Each structure stands twice: as structure tokens, then as C-alpha cells.
Amino acid sequence: MKNYWTNLDKNHAIDTTSINEKITDTEKSNLEFLEDNEFVEMATSRRNFLKLCGFSVTVAALATGCETPITNAIPLLIKPEEITPGIANHYASTYFDGNYFCPILVKVRDGRPIKIEGNDLSKTTKGGTTAQVQASVLNLYDSERLSTPLIKGEKSKWEETHVQVMSHLQAVTKKGDKIIILSTPIISPSTLKALDLFKEKYPTTEVVYYEPVSFSGILKANLECFGKQVVPSYYFNKAKVIVSFSADFLGTWLSPVEFISQYAEGRSLQTAGNVMAKHIQLEAGFSVTGSNADVRIPIHPLEEGNILIALYNAIATKSGADLLPENKDYQPPFDVLSIANELWLNKSQSLVLSGSNDMNIQIIVNGINQLLNNYNNTINLDFPYLTKKAIDEDMTRIIAEMNSGDVGAILLNDVNPAYDYPEANQFIAALKKVDFSALLTDRITETASHTEDVLALDNFLESWGDYEPKKEEYSFAQPCIPKLFDTCSFLECLLIWTEIKTTPYEFIKLTTQENLFPTQTTYTDFDNFWSIALQSGIFVPKEKIEIIKTVTKEKQKKVEKEEPILDINKKLYESSSKINIKKDKNSLVLEMIPNIAIGSGAYANNPWLQELPDPITKVSWDNVASVSVKYAKEKGIITGQLISINNTITIPAFVQPGQENNTITIALGYGRKNVGKAGNNVGQNSYPLLKIVNGEKLYHTDVISVTFLNTEYPLALSQTHDVMEGRSIIRETSLKQYLEKPSSGNEEREEILKESTSLYPAAEFPGHHWGLSIDLNACTGCNSCLVACQAENNVPVVGKEQVQKRRIMHWIRLDRYYAGNPENPEMVQMPIMCQQCDSAPCENVCPVAATMRSNEGINQMAYNRCIGTRYCMSNCPYKMRRFNWFQFAKNDSFDFNMNNDLGRMVLNPDVVVRSRGVVEKCSFCTQRIQESKLKAKLEDRPLKDGEILPACAQACPAKAIVFGDLNDTKSEVSQRFNNPRHYHLLEQLHTQPSVGYLTKIRNIDNDINKEEV
Amino acid sequence: MSKSTLILGVFKDENLMVDAIKKIREKSIKIEEVFMPYPVHNIEDIAGLHKTRLYGAALLFGIFAATSVFYFLYWATVKSYPLVYGGKPIFSIPSDIVITFVLTINITSGLSVIAFFIINKFYPGKDSNLIDPRVVDDTFVVAIHKPESIEDTNLINELFMTNGAIEVNEKFIQ
Amino acid sequence: MIYESPVRDPYVIGEKSYHQITEDILKPIDKTPSKAWYIVLYISIVAMCIGGYSLYKTFTVGIGTWGLNNSVTWGWGIINFVWWIGIGHAGTAFSIFLLVLRQKWRTSINRSAEAMTIFAIICAGLYPMAHMGRIWLCFYIFPYPNTRGPLWVNFNSPLFWDVVAIGTYVLASATFWYLGMMPDFVTIKERAKTKLSKFIYGTLSLGWNASSKTWNRYEAISYILGGLAAALVVSVHSIVAMDFATSVIPGWHTTIFPPFFVVGAIFSGFSMVLTLVIIMRKAFNLQDYITSSHIDAITRILVFISLIMGIAYLTELFISWYSGNGFEIFTFYRNRVTGTYSIPFWLMIFFNAVLPQLFWSKKFRNNLTLVFIISLCVNIGMWFERFIIVVTSLSKDYLPANWTTYTPSIIEVGIFIGTLGFFVFGLCLFLRFLPIIAVSEVKSVTKRTSETPLEH
Fold first, then answer.
1. What contacts A433, CB < 8 A, 6 or more positions away?
2. Do residue B87 and residue A840 have CB atoms under 8 angstroms apart?
3. The whole model's pTM is what?
4. pLDDT tens profile A769-807
5. Given an 8 Å threshold on Cβ–Cβ distance, is C403 in contact with A883?
6. CB-based contact (8 Å) between B85 and chain A?
7. Beta bridge partners of A882
8. What is the pLDDT of residues B39-83, one digit of tens each?
9. Burial zone of A322 (CB within 10 Å; 0-12 exposed, 13-18 middle, 19+ buried)
10. Backbone angles phi, psi at A488, to 5 degrees
11. Angle at CA A660, nearest 5°, toward A657 and A666?
């Protein structure tokens, strides 16, 4: 044992006038579909349902919005055939926030989307979600969304607004001035088509993409090397060695959901047999990815390039390719050769990637992958991601153009440069020079105050959509609720502005008919195809898979023939020479990275995300400046002490083990000034610190000045002790030991079992005995289970002050411990929920019998009976019971989603909202268990294994959490319980938990070197 | 005390009174009652007054309490509403013993006190009509039925006076 | 006449006639109280107001107003509960143990000790209530027939045992106290000047006539109650100890707890008696009744108990080491002996186990001010003991990720001040309106009992 230091309620109510309004503007489109006879029944009935049921919701929302007194209730007049009130329906849809993409299922209960789950039909995400996806449902019910379009800050009607916008656009085109559409990446084929039509109508239009967290480095590098301005798709599951340079691909980089499942697959010991991918992470700040790496090497952002060149040359010498000029006076801080060896040994089964936005670095990375023949094996350029489109230089260019006055109109689509563009002031100044500017957004943002028009955008759950996140991989979005406010989708606007007399729905349907329908052979009738496509939410042309196979072969040949390496080499020389003139690594550098919860900051008003503790720092409701332990010692900084960097930002310091010395890491996306109650002035905005070097956004910058203030800033930390104190809480072993003895690292269990005995007869579970197993080897600490649980179980948000007092309400906790040298420790994480003990200490001590064990082994909690003595909490060795210290719902002191009628619409009607003074905890999502049991009963069949999915298990992209019946010996969970890696937390206490863990395994022992020598 | 006249021997000292009582008993004169500012031990033996049976009563109360409480616990946990707490058996005798023990004390003491009040006919607002107000301060009073014959009466008075009584009174009691 | 005792100091100094005794003891009742009395009374009322406000906040806003958190879910609420219960043991320990042991010298102290008990238990009883998340549902804790099944309570829960035990304890000690005062009530009535007080004390006396039958039954009931309550003294605090002992938390899960707690309780009880008695005899100059030999007797007992306490502390430390249980060892050696809470721990050791050892020497025993100070220290020390037990174990238990610290909120402090206020307030009223010394009993011991030929 290694020593670790460490229900839609009566609110169906409105006044009749508002109904009529609502019908006119939201239901019109729907009614039109109904006229369409070819429209398939399924869709029709659903539309009906949505119309009738969602109708009341809409009105409820409206009523609350306008504070209309509740006058009369409107029930469901006609019962739609597939709808039973009180039974949830799931509709396939798609989540895309301009950055991450995820096919989803939306759980709709009585017309309200209340939960988002991953679409398991998707080959890419395999039903996983991220914390942000899970939380996104709350954005729908954000009371601070725009309810109408604004012209010069005045509320107006859409009709007028559209007229006004079009008149401007026409005027501009007449003048021959330029129209710029500055947009988040658009991956909707139909929207792109609409844009083309828009361009035809307004020829001077240019579409410019903008992303706060940019990938233009990779885009340009691939353009340079392969003539394709794309972000390739990666296959982590195919890689045996993964070397990542500060690419947080398990946390925030490109497409975490997808990568987590691939990564888990590649490292899983169940599926992949004994082959376990080795992961080497080189980074400055500690990332979730770094915490999962087998080997994590802290490096300085400035030396990344040099290391890559060294690595390239090391591999080149093996492959016989010509070397690149190296910086003579640079010595890598570690043995680059060994990494090179491992990569070379796993040629074409390895993966090297970098999170840098520097083109040159990315070119070297491409070079390395080229040498390793990873293209078309672990990397594919033919089916790239289409979610990343922004080229940094464009932004500087258009700002220049705007200043020069050539730009007559600018339309900002769901972007917020006034907040997240490093030189925001320049942009704002430029914006003033443009005659007409309109911002499409869902709320009043920092940018909104600088544009003439503010056009209220739909929430993605309110509108139709089609997506092509990766080439030839399509998915669809359908509205799950009629529009809550008087809003429009971007596509809708485009269609109206281009004066195309059609609805977005029909337009999308048409595009699909033209583009996708021909690519398949299964369905002869389009409507049939269309309804199926909508139902599954996913469409992948059959050909694609075959194509991949064939193409790969050809490609490989081509590669050898055409020798594209040559011209890559040229590029490599240039880049390397550029890199080598970089200055040394001893200067203090500030690094800006997005974090898991808040990301780029678009959803900063989502209280779930704000309260989500960062997996590494465990800080919620703030971003911090992570400094290295060494640096902190030298300067005498303590966690929470305010430091001012470059006189632009004053932010609490956080002493982060494993942080590269001479680096400071700050999360992006905080310090929003204008996003809403929850998100305003939370943390500090670090975008202004980004450096723009000849057009390229650099996510690290030199620290010119640091001043340490003597004021301490209270941080909301949900874990303050990082050391395991030698207790066998998280058990781990190395791959080698595991192969020798699968139970290695888990020896303690054997001893305990030997001595384990009881005064009482063993518990009997005649029917089911529910159990849950967590594979610590698969869990990456992505936090989606936490938010999923919060959404499913109506877990309240308590706010910064209470988190600080260690009163966070989450039913799942991610414990994080460090081990080894503080300069570069290993980090382990463990999700802990109520362990549902068979002999639970909490049950004995409750005086009023509010908690007892069910005959299915669940530790039940009767909220109505609880009087709040908190004895159960004291006596829980896992401390996984939560107490309602205050009235968290309908309480102005806790003004989050539970304090306004709109926000409360997200509450799950199947779960009680706990009152003040009551103890609560994980229930294994008992409402879901009951639901499935009833379903099985009605269908007169036994429950299938894996049929019941608690929210956490459902959300887990790594499928680390498995739930099932322990009485069923064939069930996956009971197999896991028989796995030699299986153990219980604190089992020596004989609490006999129903939650089990599988030991963590690290692929740390490299025999490769030995072979080489 | 039935309605009759009493001869009261008033003493100021415990020991004198005790001696007096002994002397009087030797003359086989029945002592009706003795009044004291504080309990003089074994006075009831000396004066030949009856002893209380409160102890026996308390014992019975105790046995009753113990059995009924224990049975209730068994009935409530096993018969009426069995629930599993922390994997322990439904009928958990150890904890029942604790409760039985304490509740027995509770009920027994309660019943005993009630019994005490009843046999003494104590109730709020009852007038204590003391035989002599001084008995609650510093005086001992020995009460004897006034016999019919004058001789006997005189004898008693004399016995009192000769044995240290400071005064002898007569009092008519309803 | 009074017999001078050659054997040992008399219980009552000076040749006092029974009447004199009555006069001396009951004087305060007809005297208008001193300025000091009023000042103390007013201070206590202010304190009660503070407590009242704090309770109001707790009940209306929630337990969140306290300093507790997800890990340390019990704080001052439980600490003070146990502390008050401990103090509440004084009266019973005195009057009942000593009654059963026929220790005559108790007579001049037991009355005030019992009064103390009553008020202390009321203070203690307040805490489990205030501590509840949903006090408006506190009746759930009683096993009454209901329409929920009927759903009974969890008879396995030490908290339920607490309810029963403390309920019984309040009942028993209150009755005992009242019965003890009945004879004196008549005495007061007889002396009373005003109609009102005649009426009140008359009613309270329930018609006591000093007949030997009554006395006989009276002594019987006293012994019955005494015997039963003696068992209570042991059981009540054992049960309170089981709140901790039956749990799985390191530092709580200890078999030594029940005896250890009982002894601790009597320890704090006696020292509190000492504190009050010293004040009382000064304030009402009862030096003749509460003699230095009384004080001396109590201090001797304190030395003895403090030794037991010391041994208990050492036993805990030894066993935790001897068990080889990592969690136990951590709790005791890295979170008590050393660590965040080492200061309260060592204060506890010093005040409870070391300081009282001064009483070995007669010189210190006779120095009232010193005795007074030490008695106060012991009270503080005993408070720290409860603090150490409750907080250290919870703040750092099994999973280091849960580890946190605890500082009480102003509200919690407020409630404690309130209870102190109530305690003092109660005593003030007691000293003013009730016989502070058992008159009849004192009379019975003014002469050396061994000399009375009737004593068997």
C-alpha cells in the first residue's frame, strides 16, 4: 500500500389573452406541419402532444414571466396516444454549444424537458455526456433569457425587428459595403445552405467564425501539411501509446465525451484483454487528463516546442528521416528517448497530440505522427471534426476592416467578443464604427450593450436542427418544448432575411432530403426515413464505415508514393527554426485554460456548473491562479492569498501540487459581468490576458509583474485535506503486478474477508439485491455523474458561502488525493455516493425510524419522517449524507433555480424536494428502479440486466459505473463483484456496502527501455 | 383519628419524649400518634404504631412495570411493525433491556409517589390542621386517647409531666 | 441541649436550638433580598433573552445558523447537552447516594444540590430539542399509537434511550426534590406573615401533618425513590455515553465510555455543587450549616474522582494504541494529543486530572478561594472533555476528504449563554423562595447520631 499524502404543478394557468398571443407566434409553425398530410403519424402525434401539453407550460412560464395572477387551469383536452401524463418520454436531440457536440435524449415529463441523457445510438459518444451537457437543460429555464428582440435596448416585436434588420442589410448591399456574419462554428448543413442563399441575396457578405477557445493552430497546421484546414478525428481506442502535450482531451479538449469512451476502451482490462494503452501527459498546469496519465511530466509552456523537436529527432533517427535543427543550448528535463522508444515500438498504434494553438508546434506534432505512421490509423483526416472553424487571424483582419469603415453591417451569432476576445476594447471600438450591428444571443451579454439590435435566440431544446459534427456523421435536433419566450433560431432569422417563404423545419427536412436521403438505401420513402432519423437522432451513411477501411489502405499506399513528407519537411524546418528562437523557460509564464465546469464561460449563469467543484482544485464558484509548490514556498504564498498579475487581474492564488514551477494557470470563462444573477462577477476574467501574436491567440503569456496582496480571499473548497494518510481508500497497482496477480493492490481485502464475521445472521434479499460497482481505472473524474445526479434528484444549489462552510449538497462526491512528490505527484480520484450498506451504521441510530433497509438492500430514507437529529450523518463513516441546513427551495437567500417558478420547472416530479431540517442522500435513483420494475411487470417479463440505469451510471462516458442486481449471478455488476480487483470502501468496518470499487491500474512499468538497451 | 378528645404531651427534646413514650407503654397505654418536626427513627416500634407497607407496593409496581414494558417492546418491534435497522435482528434484546430498565424505574417511582399521596390523602390546598403549630418547628407531641375514667386521665397527665413534658394539653378532634 | 461530638466536627456549628435552626435557614424567605441578588437576577434575565433570540433564529432560519457542516454534524448542541446532564448529576449523587449510604452530612447541602440538578437537566433537555432540524415534529420521537401503521420509533437508537432516560431522570429528581421540601413548606407556612404566602406554601405542603405515620411513609418513599434514582444516576449517563459508544466513529466507539461518563458527570456535578455552595454560604451566611468540614468532604471526593478520570484518560490512550487500529491511533494521537485540538485536550487533562490533586493537602482544602477556583476549573475542564470527544472524532474520521474543522457560530454561543442564564435565574428564585437547606433533616442531625440510643 503506497503511502498517500495526500411536477408540473397547478401552474397550468394563464389569462386567456396571453394564450392567444402565444398561439399566434409559437404554434403557427406547428399548425403548418399539421396541414402537411405526408407528415408521419409519429411526428404528428408528438407535435400534438407538444402543442397541447407544452402549451400550458409555455403559458405558465409566460404567466410567471409577466407575473400574471393565476386565474384558470387548462388541462390536457385530448390525450395524445403515446402520451400518458406522469410517464416520461424521451426524444432524441442534439447538443451543440459552438464548442462541444453531443447526441442526446431529452427526458420530457408532462411537456417539460427535465433531464438530458446521452444518446446511446451514437457511435461516437456511446451515450455518454459531459457535465455541461447534463447541466444544459437548466439553461432552458434560465429566467434571465431574453424574452423578446431588442432594438436599441427597447423591447420590440419580431416582425418589426426583421423588417428593420433587412432594411439595414439591403441599404448596406446597395452601398456595396461589407456585411460580416461573426458566428460560432456552424455545423448545421441546412444553416450553411441558408447562409449560401443569404450570400446570394447579400453578395457582400462574409461569414467569419469565432471561438473563444481557438483551434486555429491545428487547422492551419493541417492546411500547411496536408492542404486540409481541418481538425482530424482521433481514435484513442486504437492507440497503445498516447503522448499528449497539454491537450486536456479527457476534460475540455475538442470532444471529451468521445475521447473519454475511447480512452476507457483503450485502457479497459475487461474488453481489451491485457493490452492497456499507456498515457504520457506533458503539461504545465494539472489537468484531469494529467491526473489519469500513467506518466505525467510537468513542462514549461515555452519548452513544449523544443521537446517536440527533440522527440521528433529521436524518432527520426530511428526511422532514418532527416533531423530538424535543434536548439543547442536546450536540454529536455527528462529522457525524451524513452518516450520516443515507446512510440516507435508502437508505430502506427500511437498518438501524439498537443493542445497548443501555435501552428508551428502543431506542424511538428503532425510530423511526428507522420513518422509514426499514425495517420489513417489513430488519426484520420478524411472524416475530420467540423466543430472547429475559427482562424484567429480573421478576427484581427475584420477588426481592421471594421475600423477602415468598409463594413456596413455586422451580425454576431451567439458570440460574445466583448467578453471573451483578448482585445475586447479594440473590438468594441471597431464595432462602433459599423453602421449597423445586431447580436443574436439568448441573454443580455457584455456584447449586447454595444450592438444596435439584440435578437433573442432559442434554446437548443426549443428549435429544430440538423448537425454534421464530423464529416458524414449527422444528427438531428427536435424541439422538446414550445418556445418559452418570443425567440427565434438563427436559421429562422436567415430564412426570413433571405425572404425564403418556409419554416426552419421544412427547410431542414428539405436539406436532409437532398443531402442525406440519397446516401442511404435502407429506406425508399423519405418520410419514413425522416421519421426514423428523427427518432434515432443519428444518421451515419452506411458507406462511411466501408469508405474508412478502403480509403485507409489507399491512403497508406499514397503516403508512401506521393511522399508528402517532403513538403512537410520544409514546413517542419521553418517551424522548428521559429520554435528554436523562443526564449528560455526560466521566465514566469501565465497559462490560461478552460475548466470542466465553466468551459469558455458561455454558461456561466448555470448554478449547477458554478457549484461543480473543479476536479483538480476542488474550488467552486471561483477561478484561481494555480502556482507551483516550489514557487509558493519561495514567495511565501498560501492558498487563498490574493495576487495581482500584470496589474490586469487580481485573483486568489492556489498552491497546486504538480504545477510546473515558474508557471501560473488560470481558468477561462469566469468574471462574467453580464450573464445573470448566478454568474455575474464570479471569479476573474482571464481572457484579457491572452496574447495575440501576429494574429494568433496564444493561451500563455509572460508574467511581467506579480504582486502579492496580504488579503486572504475565502475560497469555496469542498475538500481541504489532500492526503490519504496511508489508508487503503483508493487501491491501485501497476499493470505488471496486475498481470502477475490480478488481486495485487487489493491484498487488504483478503485479510479482511478472512477475519470477517458477524454476530448476526447474514442479510437475506429474496427478490433483488441492488448493487453498484465503480471501476476506478475507467473513471476519469469528468464530473458528469455529479451534475446528472443533481438534475435527476432535485439536489439544491447552496451557493458559495455554504460550500465554503462545507455544506455542499451533492449526492456524489469526487474525492481527490495526491501521492508522491509534491512537485509532481500522482493524483487519484474516487466517486463516492451513499454506499447503501447492508448493515448500515446510520440506520441503527435514527430515533424515529426515518431510515431503514429495504428488502432489496437499499438504505431507504423517509424524508417525511426525518426530524433532523443528524445522528445518521455523524455515524456514517463515508459522510455521504446531506442535511438541509436551510430551506433551499423558494428562499430568497438561495436565489438559484429553485427560487423562481421557471427554474423550478426543471425539477423531477418523481423526486421530493426536501424541506429544511431533513437529511437526504443517494437513493440509487429508486424512482428509476421502480419505473423499470413496473414496466417489466406490465410487460410480464423479468428485469433485464442493465435495464435500470441510475442517473450517474447513465451519464458516465467511460461506463465506469455499473448498476444491477447482485442476486443475478450473470449480471455485469455481480461479475464485477467477483472480479479480484473488487473491494469495498472501509470494508473493515463491516458495513457491508452495496457499492463496490475496482482497483486502479497504472501502466507505469516500461520494460521497453530494457529491451532497447 | 376518629373524633374524640386527645391528651397531648408536649416535649422539646427527642430523647425525653422517647423515654416518656417507653414509660407510658409500660403502663400498657396505647399511644395514638406522635408528632415530630423531623423523623425520629424507629419511633413507630417504640410507640407501637403500625409500619408502612409502601415498600411491598413499590416491589409490585416494579414487577408490573418491567413485564409490561418488555412485552410492549416485543409486540411493537416484532408483531406490530417489524423493520430492519442496519442488518440487526428485528427483536434486539440488548436495546430492549436498556429501555425496560429505565422505564421500570420511571413507572415504579411514579406509582409509588402516587400511592404515597393517596394513603396520606395529600392533595393541593388540603389544610394540614396541625395538632400544634410548633410541631413543625421544634416541638414533639405525643397524642393519647382521653380515657373515660378520670384516674386514667390523671395517670397519663402525670406520666407526661414526670417524664419531661413541658406541658400537657387536651384537644378535641372531629 | 446539643451534644458536642468528640469523634468528628459537628454538622452544625454552635449550640443551636431547633427553633434557632428554623429561624436561620428560613430567614431569606421573609427578608427582602439584597441588591446583589437583584443584580445577579437581572444579569441572568439578560442572558436568557440572548438565549431566547438565538433559539428564535435557530427555529425560524434553520440549523444552518450554527457552525456545523457535513462532517461535523454535532457541535455545541451536543457538547453542552452532555455538560449540563453531567452537572445535573450533582443533586442526585448527593442526596441519593449519600442517603442510601446514610451519610448524614449531606443534609445541609442536598437541597440546593437537588435544585441545581433540576435546573441543569432543564437546560440539558433544551438542547436535543433545539438541535433538531424540524423541532415542530419532535413528538415523532415518542412511541405513541398513530395512523402510520402504527409506526413506532427505533428502539435501537441511543437517542431514543436518551429521551426515556432523561425523561425519567427529570421526573424522579423533581419528585424527590419536592417531597423533600413538603415538611419545610408547612414550617414556612406557619411562620409566614402575609395571607398570600400562607396560601401558597399551604397549598404546596399538600396538607402535611407531622405525624409519625406520615413521617414513616415519608421515609419509606424517600428510600424507594432514592434507591431507584441511584440506579438512574448510573444509567442516565451511561446511556448518554452510549450515544457515542454505540457508533462506529473512531474515538467514540469505546467500551470504557459508560463508566467513564458517569464518573465524569459526578465529578462535574460535585465541583459545580462546590462552586455554588461556596457562594451560597457566603451570600446567606450559612457558615454554621455548610461548614468547612462539608467543603472538606467534597474536596476529598473530588481528589478521588479526579484520579479515576486521569486513569480513564490514560486507559483510552493506551487502548487506542494497543488496539493497533490506525483510525483510533490517528484520532487519539494526531487529533487529540497533538494536532488542531491539542490545546483543549491538554487543558482537559490539566483541569480534570492534575489540578484537583492539590486537594491532597489539607492546607489547600481549607483555602476556600483556591477551592472555589479549582471547582470552576474542573467545570471548564469537563466542558473541554465533551468538546474533545464530540468535535475531534467528527472533524477527522475515516475518509480524509471529509476532514474539516469546526467553530461554533454566534447563535450556538448565544444559546449556551441562555442556558447559563436560566440556570442562575432558577437558582436565584430557589434561594429566595424555597428552604435552601432541608430544615427537618438538619434538625435530625444536630446531635451526634451515634449517641442517640435509638440509632441501630
1. A402, A403, A405, A407
2. yes
3. 0.89
4. 999 999 999 999 999 999 999 999 999 999 999 999 999
5. no
6. yes
7. A920
8. 887 777 877 787 888 999 999 999 999 999 999 999 999 999 998
9. exposed
10. -130, 155
11. 80
